[in-house]
Amino acid sequence: MRWPTPASVPAHEVSKMKRLSLTLALSFAAPLAGAQQAMWGALHSDHSSTKTITVPDAPDATAKEQSFQDKRFGVSFLIPPGWELTRKDGQVSTFHQDARTAPRTAELRGVAMIDFNPFPHSTLSGAIFYYSVEPKTTDVECAAQATHLDPSGAGHKDVQTIGGVPFAHGHDEHGEICTEARDEVYTAFHNHACYRFDLAMNTFCSISSGAQEISDRQIHQIDERLAAILSTVTLKWEKAGANAVPVPEPPPSAAPSGAPKTTLPGVL
Predict the structure, then answer these.
(1) What is the Cα 255 distance to its own chain's centre?
(2) I need a labelling partner for 45 at 20 to 30 A (CA). Which of 8, 15, 85, 262 fits?
(3) Per-residue confidence band for 210, with pLDDT thresholds at 50, 70 and 90
C-alpha cells in the first residue's frame, strides 16, 4: 500500500511524511503535542487542519512476495509481502540520512520499506532495506564504510557471509534526545566496486506522543524481518547461492532504547 501524500509536497519530504504518519496512526493515543501537530500541518498545502493517516499493523491479504534483480551488478533478493519496493531514493526513503557512511558516489540500486507497523503502539516509524553500489573504489575504503562507523570503537564489527561472500559488518545509531536511527551495515568489495546493504530502523522519541518506547524485543523482531531479506541475497559471481544471515546483536555499548542519545562526534 502507498500512504497518501499531498501533491504539493516535494519528493524529498515523502519519506519524512511516511514516517510521521506512523506516529499519527496511534489510535489509542491522546492528541499530539502542539509541535508535532504544527509539523504535520506544515506539510499540507492548505495548512488548515491536521489529518490522520491510518497505517495497518499487518500486510494486506492480497500482498505478494516481490523479486528484485540488478542485472548490471548481478545482485538478486526477495522482498516479503507488505513491503514497498523501488529503485529510486526519495519515494520511500532518504538514503544518505539513514546510511550515514555511504559516500556520495554510492549508487542506490534498490530499496524496500515496510508498509505496515507491526507495533502500532510503539515509537517505531520505519524499517528500510537498502542495496547500493559504489563503483571505482578500493577494498580498504569499502570495508571502512562498515567498520569505521564509531570513532570510539563501540560499534561492533565482524564478518558475515551473504550469498556465499564475506561481508564486513558494523553498527551505527544516532539521535538527539533519544536513539532515532539504527543501521546495520554490510559491505563487500568485488571487481573494483563496493557492494553495500543497510538494514535501517527509524524511531521517534516518546516524549508527549502517548506512544510506548519500542522495546529491545521489538527491535530484535524488526531486525529479524530485515535479516530475512538479507538471507535471500544471491550474487551472480558466487555459485553458493543464498544463505541464512544471523540477526544482528546489539553492540555491547548500546543504551536502552529510551535512553538519551547524542550523535557521536566525527561520524559522517
Answers:
(1) 19
(2) 85
(3) confident
In angstroms, the CA 26 to CA 124 distance is 11
Q: 3-class secondary structure for 193-261?
A: EEEEEEEEEEECCCCCCCCECCCHHHHHHHHHHHHHHHCCCEECCCCCCCCCCCCCCCCCCCCCCCCCC
**Which residue, chain included where needed, has cell 568489495?**
189
Q: Locate 87 and state its grid cell.
A: 529503485
Q: Residue written as cell 558475515?
A: 160
Cell of 101: 557512511
Q: What are the residues whose beta carbons fall under 8 Å from the beta carbon of 239, sequence distance 6 or more? A: 164
Distance separating alpha carbons of residues 263 and 171, to the nearest angstrom: 14
Mean pLDDT of the chain: 77
- Report which of residues 190 and 253 the model is more confident about: 190
| Contact yes or no for 206/29 (Cβ under 8 A) | no
pTM, 2 dp: 0.75
Most distant CA atoms of the chain, gap in Å: 58
What's the rounded Cα separation, in Å, for the pair 107 and 145?
A: 14
CA separation for the pair 267, 148 (Å, rounded): 9
* DSSP 8-state secondary structure symbol assigned to residue 123: S
State the burial class of residue 2 (Cβ atoms within 10 Å of its Cβ: 0-12, 13-18, 19+).
exposed
CA dist 19 and 33 (Å) reads 17
Other beta carbons within 10 angstroms of residue 168's beta carbon come to 23
| Domains within the chain, CATH numbers bracketed | 11-235 (3.40.1000.10)
DSSP state at residue 105: T
How far apart, in whole angstroms, are the C-alpha atoms of residue 95 and residue 109? 11
